[in-house]
Design goal:
Layout lengths: L1 H20 L10 E4 L5 E4 L5 E4 L24 E3 L5 H4 L2 H8 L3 E4 H9 L10 E2 L4 E5 L2 E7 L5 E5 L6 E5 L4 E6 L5 E4 L9 H8 L3 E5 L8 H12 L3 E5 L11 H8 L5 E2 L7 E3 L1
Parallel strand pairs: 3-4, 4-5, 5-6, 12-13, 13-14, 14-15
Antiparallel strand pairs: 1-2, 1-16, 2-3, 7-8, 8-11, 9-10, 11-12
Helix pairs in contact: 5-6, 6-7
Length: about 280
């Protein structure tokens, strides 16, 4: 009888301790956003999927040394390229081949890449502004406008010379994750009035915004877009510092932004933020 009483009380004590030591509520999975310089990001979703954008890594002077090897990214599940310029497209074909995944980008850019034999057509799906794709379970990507240009420069294997090909129109991406968190990767862009519409319609939580100037918005323009049109919860500046002409800085943007509720996260290449 005594042994049964001891066993029963030990069992209740063990159960009580497990309830006390366990968290009261399961912690929600987080989104991790790692900046790799220029417009390249590694986004790890709450479901554990890895999304890479605009991978210019090997020859980007700002890429952290440990990411100069594409294998260092680990398994990549989704690849997004906003347009055909070298500082966005350069390492995309190699990354797509390494992971045997498709490269999502402007439809005409992908058609040029397929005709040139850069990747097999099956790895170059085509979509365009306003189009929405579901490339992974629980992940939705919508192509939106960007005010920029796009050509695809590729070295001809037969001549060894660079050739310029149709690059389609540049894109931004609304990336909706498994838990509904929305990221607006703006690509390369100048100001345009429909930023306000994009923000009102898609309601992004996090905006990845170019601030370098010369080729894109500079800090003052980016500050205006954030304050007056986009009004997101979080902002990560991008596309500055890698090219001598991209002189804008996060400090200049933050100085110009004035009264805004957005939380600015001025990452350095190799740093990450969690949401």
């Amino acid at each position: 009888m005594m042994n049964r009483w001891i066993f029963r009380n030990l069992a209740w004590a063990s159960l009580a301790w497990s309830l006390i030591s366990a968290p009261l509520f399961a912690q929600p999975a987080k989104t991790e956003v790692l900046w790799l310089g220029q417009s390249a990001f590694k986004i790890t979703t709450p479901g554990g999927k890895v999304i890479v954008t605009d991978p210019w890594l090997i020859n980007n002077p700002l890429t952290p040394p440990q990411y100069k090897q594409l294998e260092a990214l680990g398994k990549v599940d989704l690849l997004l390229v906003s347009h055909g310029h070298l500082d966005h497209f350069a390492d995309a074909p190699a990354l797509a081949t390494l992971n045997q995944i498709p490269l999502y980008g402007p439809g005409d850019m992908n058609q040029s890449a397929a005709l040139l034999g850069i990747l097999p057509p099956a790895q170059l799906p085509r979509f365009n502004k306003g189009g929405t794709v579901n490339p992974l379970p629980g992940i939705k990507v919508t192509a939106v406008h960007a005010e920029h240009s796009s050509v695809l420069v590729w070295k001809s294997p037969s001549t060894g010379k660079d050739e310029t090909h149709v690059g389609g129109e540049p894109l931004g991406f609304i990336i909706e994750l498994e838990n509904g968190f929305r990221i607006y990767h703006m690509g390369d862009t100048g100001l345009f009035g429909d930023m306000k519409f994009i923000a009102e319609y898609y309601k992004p939580d996090l905006v990845l915004i170019p601030i370098g100037g010369n080729f894109t918005m500079g800090p003052v323009d980016a500050a205006y877009a954030i304050r007056e049109w986009l009004k997101p919860k979080f902002v990560i500046p991008m596309h500055y510092g890698a090219n001598p002409l991209g002189k804008g800085t996060p400090a200049e943007m933050m100085s110009a932004i004035g009264n805004s509720a957005a939380k600015i996260l001025p990452l350095k290449p190799g740093e990450k933020a969690e949401f």
